[in-house]
Amino acid sequence: xxxxxxxxxxxTLPKAIVEKLPATDYFEVSLHGETIVLxxxxxxxxxxxxxxxxxxxxxxLTEKDVASAIRWARKH
Length: 76
Prior knowledge:
Largest sheet: 2 strands, antiparallel
Structural class: alpha+beta
Strand order of the largest sheet: 1-2
Number of strands: 2
Number of domains: 2
Distance between the termini: 58 Å
Shape: elongated
């Protein structure tokens, strides 16, 4: 399969490749000799934040509790 580099150094990935990686929006790009390697990367920012929020809810922590803990940590 071919992919053409545009004037702005952009590549369009072939549809057959993209269909095999439906949940991938980001790739780690590296160069091995003259070979460009793209590795799918999952950015977990949203999922991580959701897990933190769920844990805070389970522990019945409020925003005030978090603010208080931050103030305490900054003092020590």
